[in-house]
Amino acid sequence: MKRPLVLLSFLLVLPVRAADRQVVEEIVARVNDEIITRTELEQQRLELRRELSQQFSGQSLEEAYHDRELHLLRDMIDQLLLVQKGREMGISVESEAVKRMDAIRQEMNLKSMEELERAVEAQELSFEEFRNRIRSNILTNQVLQRLVSGRVTLSADEVSGYYETHKQEFHRPETWKLREILVATTSKGRTDEEARARMQEVLARIRKGEKFDALAREFSDAPTAENGGELGEFQRGQLAPELTEAVAKLRESAVSDALATRDGYLVLEVAQYTPEGIPPFERVEDEIRERLFMQRVQPTLREVLTDLRMNAYVEVKAGYTDTGAAKRREPPTRKRGRRWRRLRERKEKP
Asked: Greatest CA span in the chain, whole angstroms?
């Protein structure tokens, strides 16, 4: 999961009662009518260190953490501004969020959303917070796509020119992108004869023109069935010798004969074949466009976020640094959020 962008505004110390001045919460930043608290900032710091500790250790970890932590508050404010902009634009992400969560479940090889919920809570994160983060990430990505993409243009000559001057960077080993259908034997209580007959039915329907991925969802006993049998991309030497022999003689979109394995009977489809060497321009054009887009999008992204700040009220409490700060606007006159009012009322109680 990508780390959200966040921005801070100001900080208030809120007492439970005036007698003991006990701190309830500290507001670090205000972004229009929403706030960022110290607790939320500290949680982001903990998650940042946990994430970086998977890549670095010792002094390298401390240096990487210092570099990222410096902009953490800025990123939080950015995230909140983008979410607010998404609401303003009327963007709905509910269906996309459901798909994203299901994709995460499949990647983790979990059988149900209940299992995913337990896995999330084992990481000391509530499932609702997990769901909200996914919604926010999807929403901010869609807002950025609408606001940034229109400012980045690439001509056909630029894309083809990049290919000509960077051809060696696109050298590819021989690879096969495969799909599978597995008809299991003993694990499904089938005899060898029953499994072989079921596989022959599958092959007959493939040869009549039915879609391989649809048949995989209907017949396959492999975990890949839900994804239409998508097995992944393999180079020569990464497959078992008998599988390499079976697919090496197939053209793209062709299907192998039934292969006997210890789990049952298997058929493979070559969804895409890439010979060793430099692929033609058409095969890597999208990759080149993505490369060039990412090179140009970063400065444009900062411009977009600065524009959002210029039209927002962002205030950060003294002692905290917003490295993306822009000229501050006057506080909004619209009705403030309930959470903000609740914290203010606590502060003002005698």
From this structure: 83
**Class for the domain spanning 172-274:** alpha beta
CATH architecture of 13-147+295-348: Orthogonal Bundle (1.10)
Cα 9 from chain centre = 28
Helix axes 281-310, 72-88, angle to 10 degrees: 90
pTM: predicted TM-score of the whole model, two decimal places: 0.54
**pLDDT value at position 188?**
81
Q: Which of 310, 304, 313, 307 is nearest to 337 (CA)?
A: 313
Burial per residue of 5-38, b for 16 or more beta-carbon CB atoms within 10 angstroms, e otherwise: bbbbbbbbebeeeeeeeeeebbbbbbbbbbbbbb
- Least-confidence region, from 19-23, 43-47, 178-182, 207-211: 19-23
The bridge status of strand 230-235 relative to strand 175-184 is: antiparallel
Q: Distance (Å, rounded) from C-alpha 239 to C-alpha 258?
A: 17
